[in-house]
Amino acid sequence: MKNFKSFILIFAIMLTTLLVGCGSDTEQNSTDATNTEVTQQEDNGKVIDREGNEVTLPEKADKIISLAPSITETLVNLGLADKLVAVDKYSLEVLKENGIEDLPVFDIMSPDAENIVALQPDIIFGTGMSKSDGTDPFAPMVEMGAFVTVVPTSTSIEGIKEDILYIGKVTKTEEAAQKIVDDYQAKIDEILAKINKAKTDEKIKVYFETSPMPKAYTFGQETFLNDMLNMLGAENIFGDQTGWIPVSEEQVVAKNPSVILTNAGFLETPVEDIKNRSGWENIDAVKNNNVFLIDKNTSARANENSIVAFEQMAQALYPSVFEN
Fold first, then answer.
1. Cα(189)–Cα(91) distance, integer angstroms
2. Cis omega (within 30 of 0) for bond into 69
3. pTM, 2 dp
4. Mean pLDDT of the chain
5. Residues of the chain with pLDDT > 70: what percent?
6. How far is Cα 153 from Cα 166, in angstroms, rounded to an integer?
7. d(C-alpha 244, C-alpha 186), whole Å
8. d(CA 28, CA 32)
9. Interatomic CA distance for residues 155 and 243, integer angstroms
10. Residue whose C-alpha is closest to residue 82's, from 97, 67, 95
11. 296 Cβ neighbours under 8 A, 6+ residues apart
12. Which residues lie across from 246 on neighbouring strands?
């Protein structure tokens, strides 16, 4: 019974992590393949949103609702924390970090349309994850006259930058959004410049575990974390697959990564747990003590704060470059 309860707990944590950070396959497939090709062209107040639809921008941005923690973080970084009138439950920690409490809270997966619209928001930011079951919970809000715009989880660094600029356009904070994008790119360039001399023709084989065993998940192509690994000159051992994928212990052992990364920071000892797995002692990453913890939130939310995870990944792959 104890083992069964432990399994249920780990599975619940894994599901929550996937919901908060990763989004759904539906959301993933609707992002960068289309979004990075979209040009935000104004024509009488109209722009192309991040789903590829033409929308008319709201006249005001005084009352904002955010139903995704990644978007909430960007809104806060844009200086719009005081404009938020409601959020999703996963955004609460973001608000607390910025001294904001007691806002109405809604469920990402089934947002209450009537109560949300009753707050008379100028803008409602949604996530494609809310549509993962094939329904559109935002449709009733639109029918009631609310401005709703969905920002799917981007699958690349370029997509993240486009998201920020779009959010800035909608909230009339274009200058602040451009500065965030410029700073984000500058930090990326700085990190890449540091590691360039340490790169070799032979790529570092990496396994990144986003949910722990016994129901482990990782990622392949069309994810922003995979894009980061590529930029850092690493080889994702599951890079031949797409999206967020379940993996077995046997698969990881067979692929023998030289570095293992995990963002399962909700566990007490995630790195030691990996090192102590039976049968993993012969994996190069374990033998050479190359198992590292990456910050959970910044590696799970596709926004400008992902630079923290990006730098941590670089440090794990090229420790000698960052010794000082």
1. 29
2. no
3. 0.85
4. 88
5. 86
6. 13
7. 28
8. 8
9. 9
10. 95
11. 17, 21, 263, 264, 265, 266
12. 217
Residues 6 or more apart in contact with residue 174 via CB below 8 angstroms: 165, 168
For 171-301, where are the alpha helices, taking DSSP H only?
A: 174-195, 224-231, 249-255, 270-275, 284-287, 296-300
Q: What is the pLDDT of residues 6-35, one digit of tens each?
A: 434 443 444 444 444 434 444 444 444 444
Q: How many CB atoms lie within 10 A of CB 247?
A: 21
Cα three-residue angle 295-297-300, rounded to 5 degrees:
100
| DSSP 3-state of 262 | strand
| pLDDT per position as a tens digit, 30-79 | 444 444 444 434 446 889 999 998 999 999 999 999 999 999 999 999 99
- All residues at 6 or more sequence positions from 187 whose CB lies less than 8 Å from its CB, including other chains: 307, 310, 311
Give the tokens for residue 194.
Answer: 């540091």
Judge whether 130 and 111 are in contact, CB under 8 Å.
yes
**Which position has the token pair 């949103």?**
49
Question: Which residue type occupies 162?
Answer: E
- Number of residues that make up the chain: 324
What domains are there in the chain, each with its CATH number? 2-21+197-322 (3.40.50.1980), 26-184 (3.40.50.1980)
